[in-house]
Specification:
Aspartate Aminotransferase, domain 1
Length: 508
């Protein structure tokens, strides 16, 4: 490290004010530091200007002299001075000394503030304050999936090499239209592929014109609610239910109405009693989150009758019902609708991988023009090259093959989790039925808080959700939410053993 103490306060021989010459300058440069030398000089001079140690108009030493004293190249000093001048701290003129600017771009900092005050934060909206007060959901322990992160698919089983080959082919053959950005409703080829897939696998009879590509389920909820509800409107949400649905309703400045869910799904009679004139309902009828129950046919039909009479819109969240462990997936609620009340929402974050960030919704014919008009001035919902890769992956049959493999994988992993819970957590946790998807809920059978159990488990490196955090009503069921999709069988048993240790500390 080299340092330069350059002078003390003095006046020039011609008796000009001391501001016209340098007062004092202490610079340190360290050749071992990661920051380049010119940045170190820049930071040192800037800090002294801001601290008031170098007054406006004061003359600095020449770049040649400062470079010699610091033992650096003159170009290094000039690079630092040029950057300081560009930001308004110095004034540099040809054939003239370099000086501190007469007017600084910011006020000089106090040298030693006795009581530093934190800046007052910006004022937030009522919606932002409400959203901030909601529970955050299951905390993540790092970025890598581990037992038992809810909502994480089997990333170890995804055909990455195949996806890479298709992606490379799409990049190599990309047309000018594809590179330009494409249709704001989503790439036509992808919308056609989605329409063909959901028509055959989910009973969602539609055309590509009814499909709108989104950047995920949450974005779909936000977009749909923004067009169908006004501020203060009531919207049914499941209780307990997906927290993202409640967030979307509040983000639209609507009022979420918590409708209880039991073993038959959303209680339509209770919903009609709580808010008979609600404008919409957000639910997952084929595989409710987090309880995993399926809405009975009687309640599905009752919901559609109510929606038709109330002119309400039903937002059907079909996030992972294609992964039915036994038998074919159930027909979507959209397939039963004869009054154009249902908007079907799907995602590839669960069926493929979360980083893809591509979802979609299918609008009933009566709402297509409204959604298309709202999209007209918006940018494409996702990278067009990613959309092209996904469209090819579906059209070539790879998506259907992947779904078949994942159904077997999730059935095996779900059975492994149930067996591990029976071996390690019997008497403390009572698993609920699980015949679809990649998560399972177990009721807590001991006198302990599920949030406390989840916190103890997190301390041991196990991610589980607390069922009570998904509820809005005061009377909340206590349980643990497991995600087993991204956990291999060997890791499942290790995770339940650690969870058993966490529960044991609650009993002691």
């Amino acid at each position: 490290m080299q340092s330069l103490w350059y002078g003390r306060q003095y006046q020039l021989a011609n008796n000009r004010p001391y501001q016209s010459a340098i007062v004092s300058l202490l610079l340190d440069v360290d050749r071992r530091a990661r920051a380049p030398l010119h940045e170190q000089i820049f930071d040192g001079v800037r800090a002294r200007i801001l601290a008031g140690e170098l007054a406006p108009n004061v003359r600095l030493p020449s770049s040649r002299r400062l470079a010699a004293d610091l033992g650096v190249a003159r170009t290094t000093v000039l690079q630092a001075f040029d950057a300081l001048a560009a930001e308004g701290y110095l004034v540099m003129r040809a054939a003239s000394a370099t000086r501190v600017a007469p007017e600084l771009p910011v006020e000089p900092l106090a040298r030693a503030p006795r009581r530093p005050q934190a800046p007052r934060p910006p004022r937030l909206s009522a919606v932002a304050r409400t959203l901030a007060a909601l529970p955050p959901g299951t905390p993540r322990l790092g970025t890598a999936p581990r037992a038992f992160r809810p909502g994480c698919p089997a990333l170890d089983r995804f055909p990455t090499a195949l996806w890479a080959r298709i992606s490379a082919r799409c990049h190599a053959r990309a047309s000018a239209a594809l590179l330009d950005g494409g249709d704001p409703r989503g790439l036509r080829a992808l919308r056609e592929a989605i329409a063909a897939h959901v028509s055959t696998s989910r009973g969602v009879r539609c055309t590509a014109d009814q499909v709108f590509v989104t950047a995920g389920t949450q974005v779909a909820f936000d977009e749909i609610l923004r067009l169908i509800v006004d501020a203060g409107d009531q919207v049914w949400v499941e209780d307990p239910g997906y927290l993202g649905a409640r967030h979307a309703v509040l983000g639209a400045r609507a009022l979420p109405v918590a409708v209880p869910v039991d073993e038959q799904g959303l209680d339509v009679v209770a919903g009609r009693g709580l808010a008979p004139r609600a404008r919409a309902v957000v639910l997952a009828p084929s595989h409710q989150y987090p309880l995993g129950v399926m809405m009975s046919l009687a309640r599905r039909l009752a919901l559609l009758r109510w929606a038709a009479a109330a002119r309400a819109v039903v937002i059907e969240d079909d996030y992972d019902s294609e992964f039915r462990h036994h038998g074919r997936p159930l027909t979507a609620l959209y397939g039963l609708d004869e009054a154009d009340r249902v908007v079907y929402v799907g995602t590839f974050s669960k069926s493929l991988f979360p980083g893809l960030r591509i979802g979609f919704f299918v609008a009933p014919p009566s709402l297509v023009d409204a959604f298309a008009g709202a999209r007209a001035s918006l940018p494409p919902p996702a990278a067009t090259l990613d959309q092209s890769t996904l469209a090819t992956f579906i059209a070539d049959g790879h998506f259907a093959s992947h779904l078949r493999r994942m159904r077997v994988t999730y059935r095996e992993r779900g059975e492994a989790l149930r067996a591990a819970l029976a071996a390690d957590c019997a008497g403390a946790l009572v698993p609920l039925p699980c015949d679809t998807g990649m998560q399972l809920v177990a009721r807590l059978a001991i006198a302990a808080s599920d949030t406390a159990v989840a916190a103890r488990a997190a301390a041991l490196g196990v991610e589980v959700g607390a069922l009570s955090t998904y509820a809005a009503a005061r009377k909340r069921a206590s349980g643990i939410v497991f995600g087993f999709g991204g956990v291999r069988p060997a890791q499942i048993r290790n995770g339940t053993r650690l969870l058993a240790r966490a529960i044991a500390t609650m009993r002691s």
